[in-house]
Amino acid sequence: MKYLFIDNGVRSVMEMKRHIVSYVEQELFRNEKPPDKTHRRYYPTSMDIRNVMNKIKSTNQAPTDQDDLHNLCDEIKKTNPDHTVIFRPSTLGGDKFLFVYQTPWQRRLLSLYGNEMCLMDATYRTCRYALPLFFLCVRTNVSYCVVASFIPQQEDTASIAEAIEVIKQHNPQWNPRHMMVDFSIAEITALEQSFPDCKVFICDFHREKAWKEWLSKHEHGFQDLYKRDHALKLLRTIAKSSTVEEYTDSVAVLKNDDIWGESAHLQAYFTKTWQPHANRWVQYYRNNSLLVGINTNNGVERQNELLKYSYLTGFKNCRITELVQVLVERFVPDSYVK
User: Fold this and answer.
1) Cβ atoms of 160 and 131 closer than 8 Å
2) How far apart are CA 98 and CA 66, in angstroms?
């Protein structure tokens, strides 16, 4: 049971029970009549199994989660010396937590597909700590694929930039012309610091989501569905502008509309938040630059959802060590097989 729980990530009592029944009947009593199902020594109850699993969990921990993760990283390095495994624990002296991971095949895919366009996105609530897990992805000739992962202590410019620099050091040929991210100033600034000539675009999906969420908030005054849909239509027209003239005209249409004059909130939101970054989300700026047709981060989103809802099922409120173990031993290898 300890092997299944620790090394194979079995977290469900019913799944563990199936493994036990299979082991008893196919291994211990192969070609023999198995014991009666009421014999708890061979067929423990659900409560028996849960108690043992809880005991294993409580006794199989280093003094701190960071110590345990340090041991895991040492084991990964020993088993796979060609893997990039960077771990720095958080300390009272001011050092911030950082974990970076990349395999040789991920380096190869980054070199092949990552110099035109890379996608980066963070996912949250993957463990008991408020740590963002970042995936760096590329679109290969088959599908989207994670080519590096990192977990900084904070989602600020300095922390993200440090992780990017670590990845750069292990991928000296990597110099992307474009990056696709959410509308995160910290991510955009970090990437532009690391790659001064790189153009960082904002994902269409997250732009649309941000607009809808802003318009749906009561305090912004768009409770009327017609007004909300009309404002969204005007903003979308700006985003779809394929020339400078179209962009200028569509902005003028928005600002001459009654809905603009009636809403100081909309005026401030557009002029302060979105208009200064028009080169990151208006179609015209992509048409003149991109060689590949990627306008959203959905490929990375799918990887995030796959990790959380397929691989981390049963790992709710898990330790950082468990998250990294699932990432390194299951999620990343399976991504390559696919």
Assistant:
1) no
2) 11
Six token digits for residue 305 = 């959802």
Q: Beta-carbon neighbour count of residue 269 at 10 Å?
A: 19
Residue written as tokens 């993760």?
69
Rounded CA-CA distance 160/154 in Å is 8
Average pLDDT over residues 118-122: 92
Q: Measure the N-to-C terminal CA separation of the chain; round to a whole number of Å.
A: 29
The pLDDT of residue 292: 53
Check pLDDT > 50 for residue 1: no
Q: What is the pLDDT of residues 129-148, one digit of tens each?
A: 778 999 999 998 888 899 99
Q: Backbone phi, then psi, for 199, in 5-degree steps?
A: -100, 120
**Which pLDDT band, with edges at 50, 70 and 90, does 37 fall under?**
confident
Which run of H or E residues covers position 211? helix 204-216
Query: Rounded to an integer, what distance in angstroms lies between the CA atom of residue 326 and that of residue 333?
Result: 10
- Selection from 271, 323, 336 nearest residue 110 by Cα: 336
Of the candidates 65, 69, 133, the one whose C-alpha atom is nearest the C-alpha of residue 308 is: 133
On whether the CB atoms of residues 327 and 101 are closer than 8 A, the answer is yes
* 8 A C-beta contact, residue 143 and residue 95: no
How far, in Å, CA of 314 to CA of 25, rounded? 26
Beta bridge partners of 201: 180
The DSSP-derived string for 266-287 is HHHIIIIIIGGGHHHHSHHHHH
What Å distances lie between residue 1 and 31, 124, 125, 253, 257, CA to CA? 23, 30, 27, 67, 67
